[in-house]
Amino acid sequence: MNRRNFIKSASLASTALFLPKFVSGFNLLDEAIATGKKIVIIQLSGGNDGLNTIVPFRNDIYYKKRPSLAQQKSNLIGITDEIGFHESLIAHSDLYNNGELCVINNVGYPNPNRSHFRATDIWHTASDANEYLQSGWIGRYLDASKSKSLDAIEVDDTLSLMLKGEQTDGIATKNPNLFYRSTQAPYFKKVVEHHDEAHLSEHNLGYLYKTMVTASSSAKYIYETSKTFSTKTTYPNTGFSKQLKQVAQFINSGLQTKVYYASLGGFDTHANQTNKQKRLLSVYDEAMAAFIKDLKQEDSFKDTLILTFSEFGRRVQQNAANGTDHGTANQVFLIGSQLKKPGFYNPMADLSNLDENGDLKYEIDFREIYTSVLNNWLDIDAKKVIGKPFSGLNVV
Amino acid sequence: MTLQEIVHIYNRVGFGISYTAASALQNKSRATIVSQVFDASRKVKPLTVDVSELTAQVRNAQRNDRKKLRSLIKDSVKKVHELNIAWIYRLGTTQEVLREKMTLFWANHFVCHDKNILHIQQYNNTLRKHALGNFKDFVVAISKEAAMIKYLNTKQNKKEKPNENFARELMELFTLGRDQYSEKDIKEAARAFTGWNHDFVGNFRLRRFQHDYGEKTFFGETGNFDGDDIIEIILKQKQCAQFICEKVYRYFVNDQLDPSRIREMTEVFYKDYDIENLMRFVLLSDWFYDQKNIGTKIKSPVEFLVGVHNVVPMQFEKERELVYLQKLLGQHLLFPPNVAGWKGGRNWINPNTMMLRLNLPSILLAKGAIALDEKGAFEDDFQRFNTKRNRQRKLKVLPDWEMFYSEQKNITTTQLQQVLLVSPLNKGTATYLDKLADQDLKEYCIQLMSLPEYQLC
């Protein structure tokens, strides 16, 4: 019997012995630990300008449409004869060279919405543009895989729609210590200790008590497990870095959680974009560099897939304020050591064929990517989660 | 009425009642108390924030000055937040309890959002005005509101190129419910609403050249219908009365529908679509006071916050923190998640919101700390987004315990419990509370409000 199996059977035994019947469905360790696969989802919130992130430096239209905003070739990190990475993306260009980065260009969906809120909801829920769903794709993954709340963690104080399911919601916590302490108030412990299972099944009160017990035992498990690991990697001193450091601690300590979500905001660059985007992309890139180093050191990188998206790209034509307005399709980054098609999955967008707003026409539906992740990485039938027939891409 | 029944009705038509007020009503009949509830809500007091400065600026602004317009929008959004705060305080202080509760109900029925303070404020007061009135007048008024005309794209609905968004949601969400109409009905209804628009200050305007005056066939009737006619035909469907009654039942009575009660209510409502009559019927009926309907509903975040405030009045030094609390709890008034509104019920509760609710009374009333990192707004700049991470702070809230004690003069812990907890108690929790019964009233109050049972009303 190896260590994992031992923990698993030991914990099942204790669950059965000590917890009241109505919570005994709460098995802290479940089947999924066997595969050990994790996905970390990162949102560049506000709409990152993809065209200045991965730059077609031989394209005349690009320079014509962005007289003061276009990236000059000399500033870029050259990747191919035609494409360069933004100068801030140092770690990403290394990943590219190592075959650990897959850039999927021109990802979007039909009838794109240019509102941050609506576009974010669409990406979070995997809905059509005219469809309003109240649960997120990760939340529905929890439902479909019969997972627990703690199987999906958002490293923040509030829970985003992405992690809300029909039956089960994920957990939001940026600081497992604080989260745990919130369950340790003396009165609270007494209430948890004193509750009994009488008439707690169908009644709303039963639901409240169950949720309370879930919160309390998840907080304890997350706190006690994650504190067993302390990193040897130095992280930059930014908020986003702290979030990724926390995710690395969760993963490296052997937490069973399968999905993590964090976001970096500020990409809504309507004015004076150049410096802002440069700074934001280096916050993102430097944090990722430390994060990946941390995972590699503990040999957990091989089981981790990182997906970075933004709710939309920005308009091809720059505006008068040296910025860009809300656009449509954008890149998605997949990072990992088990990528099926590292490098560029598909060609860059065709700048000579834009929609009536002067925005990119999408080529790949974002739900194709979700479908691949669900089918091939998280081992679940994607149809149960996405609800629509996408065939997926050959990426993971 | 019994004390429990009095607490029950005031939990549902308002945000609870003090022991003193409840015991003063105890010798009165149900009919008297119900009449009192309606009489107290006769007046319509519009809710407004000061927009004079903004209006003056709008008047002087050049339409092509983009920078100025952007800063005006920013100022307007600030005012919408101000209206949000004013609304919460209104809920905690109003005399027109039922009218305000119904306004809250309708705000999550005729869901709408707008950044323009003039338009959203007017919209909010239209909800208040019609909250207990005639449902048909209500639907017509809502359809002509500038905020709604923008929110559901009626503005873009033109004869040459109809936009079906409003017509669809009018039937699916506002009147009939999903799948109670054909796609053809939507197309024809959309034509009838073409040309419906508004002017700059928010008055309704019919743009004649964009309106389709042609013949339409809708629910089997044919004529040169306009929007008003369409609404009239929709209300002829009994399904419309039933759909609204189901929603009222879920909100005011029980999450779980009881078909025979819905039938009774539908008969009453279909007659004249008078909302007050319907509510009177519900509040006077015996079944409203059945044990299975008492203490079973999960409070919305706003019901929870206002409920605490009604027991111990609180003043937020930083109003931003009150906005933040609404976001953490999952209900930010005037900022609905989408056109379907908040789902309510068990959807309010997840491990995070549950822990927050249980901790909130000590955070608010006993200087507990809370993690206060707000997710940035999209409009925020880099600095606001990326500073202030991982902080725990104390909220700047001043609880008015003097007021609490003067309201609860000579009241025992048991009596306080009778008005704060109406759901059946978990047995273990009851034993635990017994041990605390001789505690200080203030401590005991915080304790009661920190229980899962307090989340129910």
Main beta sheet of chain B: 2 strands, antiparallel
Q: Quick one: overall form of chain B?
A: globular
Q: Strand pairing plus helix content of chain A: what structural class?
A: alpha/beta
Q: What percent of the residues of chain A sit in helical stretches (DSSP H or I)?
A: 25-40%
Number of strands of chain B: 8
Helix/strand/pairing category of chain B: mainly alpha
CATH architecture heading of chain A: 3-Layer(aba) Sandwich
* Number of domain units of chain A: 1
Give me the CATH superfamily of chain A: Alkaline Phosphatase, subunit A
In angstroms, what is the radius of gyration of chain B?
24 Å
> Major β-sheet of chain A, in short?
9 strands, mixed
Q: Which CATH first-tier class of chain A would you pick?
A: Alpha Beta
Largest interface: A-B, 63 and 56 residues
CATH topology of chain A: Alkaline Phosphatase, subunit A
Question: Beta-strand level of the residues of chain A, as a percent range?
Answer: 5-15%
Shape of chain A: globular
C-alpha termini separation of chain B? 18 Å
Uncertain stretches of 5 or more adjacent residues of chain B: 379-390
Oligomeric state, counting identical vs distinct chains: heterodimer
- Overall pLDDT score of chain B: 92
Description:
The complex is a heterodimer of chains A (396) and B (457). In chain A, strands 1, 5, 6, 7, 8, 9, 10, 11 and 12 form a nine-stranded mixed β-sheet that branches. Chain A has a single domain (30-176, 236-386), classed as Alkaline Phosphatase, subunit A, CATH 3.40.720.10. Chain A has helices at 3-18, 60-65, 90-97, 116-125, 137-144, 176-181, 186-194, 204-226, 239-252, 273-297, 366-377, 383-386, and strands spanning 38-45, 54-56, 77-78, 83-85, 101-108, 152-154, 171-172, 259-265, 304-309, 330-335, 343-344, 364-365. The two termini of chain A are 31 Å apart. Chain A is an alpha/beta fold and 396 residues long. Among the domains of chain B are: 1-38, no CATH class; 40-132, no CATH class; 301-455, no CATH class. In chain B, 55% of the residues lie in helices and 5% in strands. Chain B is built from 23 helices and eight strands. Chain B has a two-stranded antiparallel sheet. At the A-B interface, helix 4, strand 7, helix 7, helix 8 and helix 9 of A face helix 18, helix 19 and helix 22 of B. Chain B: Pfam families: DUF1800. Chain B: It comes from Kordia aestuariivivens. Chain B: InterPro entries: DUF1800 (IPR014917).
